[in-house]
Design a protein that fits this description.
The chain is an alpha/beta fold. 18% of the residues lie in helices and 42% in strands. It contains three helices and eight strands. It has a four-stranded mixed beta sheet with strand order 1-4-3-2, covered by helices on one side. The protein has a four-stranded mixed beta sheet with strand order 5-8-7-6, with helices on one face. The chain is globular, with a radius of gyration of 15 Å. It starts with 5 loop residues before the first strand and ends with a strand.
């Protein structure tokens, strides 16, 4: 059955991206393998607590000037990724303490509690605790 295995996130540099996603957001490194034939790395991460079968984020280093233009703006200024949590207040406090920049304050909606933050490149993410536990 088809499923999403990875979502590519274009980054400027593998190590600075790993420092942010692992060091500040607490993500887990799944794989980091050098591919000499293409002089790139296959780097995948996932949120803490996500099952091994979960879709991972593939950190894809921009290899051309055209690709580099999209670092930090993969969704044209809209929220790009949605990070679900089982404890919004805990994670919001931890991310704020780690220096994560929130561009939209926490709000409660019928679907749940949400705030928008930016990653180190400016991509926008929702931190969301869905009301129905999704």
């Amino acid at each position: 059955m088809p499923h999403l295995a990875h979502v590519a996130l274009v980054v400027r540099d593998y190590d600075e991206a790993l420092a942010f996603y692992i060091g500040k957001l607490g993500f887990v490194a799944v794989e980091d393998t050098y591919q000499p034939e293409q002089d790139k790395r296959w780097v995948t991460i996932r949120p803490p607590g996500a099952p091994a079968s979960a879709t991972t984020i593939l950190l894809a280093r921009a290899a051309t000037p055209e690709q580099a233009r999209f670092v930090g703006d993969q969704a044209g200024g809209r929220v790009f990724l949605f990070l679900a949590t089982d404890d919004f207040d805990r994670d919001f406090a931890a991310y704020a303490a780690a220096g994560i920049r929130f561009v939209r304050a926490p709000a409660v909606h019928d679907y749940g509690k949400v705030a928008v933050f930016e990653d180190l490149y400016g991509n926008r993410w929702d931190l969301v605790q869905f009301a129905d536990g999704r």
